[in-house]
Amino acid sequence: MAFSGAAFAAATLFAGAPAHAADDREVCASAADQAQQLRDEGKYRRAREQMLICARDVCPAPIKRDCLEWLSSLEQVAPTIVISAKDGTGDVTDVKVSMDGTSITERLDGKPFPVDLGEHTFKFEYQGKTKEEKVLIGAGQKVRTIGVQFGNPNAGTTGGDSSGGATAGGEQKSGSLVPALVVGGIGVLALGSWAYFGLSGTSDVDHLESTCKPNCKQSDVDSARSKLIIADVSLGVGVVALGVATYMILTRPKVDSEIKTGMNSVRFDFGPTRGGAVAGLGGNF
Question: Where are the annotated segments for Disordered (predicted)?
Fold first, then answer.
């Protein structure tokens, strides 16, 4: 009789395993569907939550793979904010903040916070004082500062309303042109490189064809070919850089007066490879 009871318990346990796996698959599939819908609606916070569910190891491999790819793409475009607050003496941290009626923090810690696209109403509570501010959040905005001023700021300080009003990241003004000009300058230099190496490479090819073809030294042939490849790469970098610079000028957003807008660094990498060359453009804003 004891053997029969143990056998029954084991059978029940193994019978429940497929059912549990089926439940996991259903949860994963449902989370994947919701994640796509929420992402398309601009509800990035809730979409991220669903993507984390369908990216678990218990999910079927195709669903997990798709969710991981969506999550990676979402992290690049999902906006984040950093909330700051000041009173008459400087920065304060014991501020309660809610967004659209939902509490998001009981105390400021300087960490970025993910938000959805669109207009949001922020409510700040500090020592019995309450401030509210509506802020429009756009795609790709990272660590945007949402600031609030309680009371009169110290003499000689800037930012914040002297009457104690809330400011969404300080006074709004157009973004700096410096990053766009730097990128545009790189584009101009790249086009100069294209002209130099293009003319030089073409001249070398003409010389080889008129003097030694088809018995030219391989090193001379490789040198001429490398110059032409460098010219092609430089042209591509120049066109892209000038296009990016134009886009940055036309679409530069309103930025907070408390944020220093600029480019921390910019680099133009170039180097030869076997049978060609490679170039890259990068920078930190």
Answer: 151-171
In whole angstroms, give the CA distance from residue 5 to residue 114: 53
Homologous superfamily assigned to 80-170: Carboxypeptidase-like, regulatory domain (2.60.40.1120)
| Residue 33 banded pLDDT, cuts 50, 70, 90 | very high
Q: Flag whether the pTM goes above 0.90.
A: no
CA distances from 1 to 8, 9, 11, 14 (A): 11, 13, 15, 20
* Structural domain spans, the chain: 2-77, 80-170, 178-284
In whole angstroms, give the CA distance from residue 85 to residue 93: 7
Residue partners of 101: CB distance under 8 A and separation at least 6:
121
The number of CA neighbours under 13 Å toward the Cβ of 237 is 28
Q: Are 139 and 79 in contact (CB under 8 A)?
A: yes
For residue 61, the model assigns a pLDDT of: 92
Residues in Cβ contact with 58 at an 8 Å cutoff, skipping those fewer than 6 apart: 24, 28
Per-residue pLDDT reduced to its tens digit, 169-186? 444 455 677 787 888 889
